Amino acid sequence: MRDTLVLNASFEPLSTVTLNRAVVLVLQDKAVVEQSHPALRVRAAAVDLPVPRVIRLCRYVRVPFRRQAPWSRPGVLVRDQHRCAYCGRRATTVDHVVPKSHGGADSWLNTVASCAEDNHRKADRTPEQAGMPLLHEPFVPSPADAMLLGLRSGERAALPDWLAAAQPAA
Ligand SMILES: [Zn+2]
User: Which InterPro entries does UniProt cross-reference here (predicted)?
Assistant: First the structure.
């Protein structure tokens, strides 16, 4: 199922919904289409509409508090764009900067994407102990970043520039 990104009236990413839900929100005048798929259309009894990729709510929704993006291994790989933090090649594993055996946590700031080779080489050591400096420091994605990170890469690549700019830099 193709997901549609939902923006608040203030243009801040809020969530993703199914295509069906997105179409309903637009037809009920609760949201406007900000970006649609150039080639695909939704066709039903009385509906003929381009497939929305991004919709924006017409009324501002107050978000009660800013949740922190929950940590996950797939999330770390996407945050680091599947690039190894030690050598820059393609990463398929997640490395704990401070190893778990040394009390290192499952957290955004203590984990980086790593190729299997470097993960194995670094083993149970810190980057200093292993002589393997990080190419970049890990960071905590904002909830809005995490929303974009959760989109499939093809969907992310298709986002308008002003939204894609909200993504963390490589
Ligand atoms: Zn590597």
Answer: HNH, HNH_nuc, NA-targeting_endonuclease
